[in-house]
Amino acid sequence: MRARDPYRPAHGSDAFHVEHYDLDLTYRVAANRLSGTATLRLRTLEQLSEISLDLNGFTVESVAVAGARLGRYRHRARKLVVKLAEDAAAGAELQVSVRYSGNPRPVPSPWGPLGWEELEDGALVASQPTGASSWFPCNDHPADKATYRTCLTVDSPYFVLAHGELTGRRVRAATTTWVYEERHPTSAYLATVQVGPYEELSLGASPVPQRAVLPPSLKKLARRRLAHHGKIMRTFTRLFGPYPFAGYALVVTADDLEIPVEAQGVSIFGANHLTDDDGERLVPHELAHQWFGNSVSVSSWQHIWLNEGFACYAEWLWSEAAGEASAADLARTWHARLTTLAQDLVLADPGPENIFDDRVYKRGALTLHALRSALGDETFFDLVRDWTARHRYGAVDTDDFRDLVEEHAARAGGEPLAARSAALLTRWLDSAELPAL
Ligand SMILES: [Zn+2]
To answer: Aminopeptidase N-like N-terminal domain spans which residues (predicted)?
Structure first.
């Protein structure tokens, strides 16, 4: 958990761990202006003379520290550095409060702008991988997971969704304050708020409530397109193990969006995804991220195939469960397509610029399918459920996966199957050449 991410070294810190974020914010929709206070309860992991937080833009109005004496602070180049008057010892618990205001702006990245985004009427937050600092000061590292209380005041007609459970809603004359509490450890990039002229539509009740949050004009279409959502949820619970959070909300914005993105207990779709063909496969894809990515998180973006390979394979598993193309058919189709592309990507270390390359997704899914074929369904799905149980709410890397595969393969088929599985993973994960299926 302590290693700063070698793929995104400018983001996050390995010197402290944030245990809890308390965000008390006001958002004026028409002006796209966000203001308020973020209070971080954190624990130092080494002796520290300063706390370095990610914060993109904004005017920092004041900083207060409890548990140590505040020195000075400076805010530039997307970093808010809070100096302490005296060093804090390793293991010290500090509270840092930052009062700030301004127009939230997306964080630039090789994959385009990330994080807070103004909509035609409202705002969304979709921060994967490094957009969290577009709206609050944070330790923007996927393995630094914290609990949250998100309190957002907006103009009264607007609906606010944040991650976690709604624990309070105070309506005043012109504004409404929405309070959400997240008790599950959450990576900063998965923290989210969604603001819009939204209503709710139930998509299923078992094993947890599932709902769409969307403009009323899209309800009829969503009811038809998402009619089978409860079935996807039950299928995935059977295959992947218990759903890790209290509920699931699928947000559909009135605006069109390029791609859907996952957040904690939430995914964000554009209106276009309710009508185009791709939307169909992306609904199970985003839901699967609740297990793979959100509950079991990567310890570095280097290991993103563990998120996207599983999410892509989940699309194939749903297709199979729904009586459409089988996972084996889809694997053959995608394998054939990958043979026509450049074979210069190593799944276990694709390079920082390539973490969202489609080959990471498809080759990741093919790796899982090849492993399933080698182990047999019973051992493979036992392994998957053990993966989500053992690393629930934690952070993992590719070697954790190899270790678990070895353990399950040895139990099912002794040393020969363990050796064959390890060799299979080496072929799929560690070399650029595409193995035969
Ligand atoms: Zn994905």
So the answer is: 19-190
Q: How far is the CA of 278 from the centre of ligand 1 (A)?
A: 13
DSSP 123-140: EEEE-TTT-GGGTS-B--
Beta strand segments in 275-400, E: 297-298, 395-396
Query: Measured in angstroms, how far is the CA atom of residue 67 from the centroid of ligand 1?
Result: 40
* Backbone torsions φ then ψ of 31, nearest 5 degrees: -90, -5
Verify that 103 and 137 share a domain, yes or no: yes
Neighbours of 153 (CB within 10 A): 20
pLDDT at residue 3 greater than cutoff 60: no
> Can you give the residue range of the structural domain that contains 234?
198-290
CA distance 250 to 211: 6
Task: Tell whether 213 and 276 lie within a shared domain.
Answer: yes
Task: Provide mean pLDDT across the span 179-206.
Answer: 98
Best CA proximity match to 203, nearest among 227, 235, 236? 227
Sheet holding 159-162, edge to edge: 115-119, 122-126, 193-196, 159-162
CA 427 to chain centre: 28
CA of 282 relative to ligand 1 center, distance in Å: 8
Structure tokens at 244: 């890790």
Q: Residue 383 is part of a domain; what is its CATH number?
A: 1.10.390.10
**What's the structural domain count of the chain?**
3
CA of 60 to the centre of ligand 1 (A): 34
pLDDT tens digits, one per residue of 58-85: 999 999 999 989 999 999 989 999 999 9
Residues 159 and 59 in one domain: yes
What phi and psi, each to the nearest 5 degrees, are found at residue 389? -80, -45
- Three-state DSSP class for 141? coil
The answer to whether residue 436 sits within a structural domain is no
Q: How far is the CA of 287 from the centre of ligand 1 (A)?
A: 9
pLDDT above 90 coverage of the chain, percent: 96
Tell me, yes or no, whether 186 and 209 share the same domain: no
- Reported in sequence order, the residue ranges of 208-265 that DSSP labels E, i.e. its strands, are 210-214, 248-253, 261-263
pLDDT score of 426 more than 70: yes
Residue 175 three-state SS:
strand
How far, in Å, CA of 70 to CA of 83, rounded?
A: 6
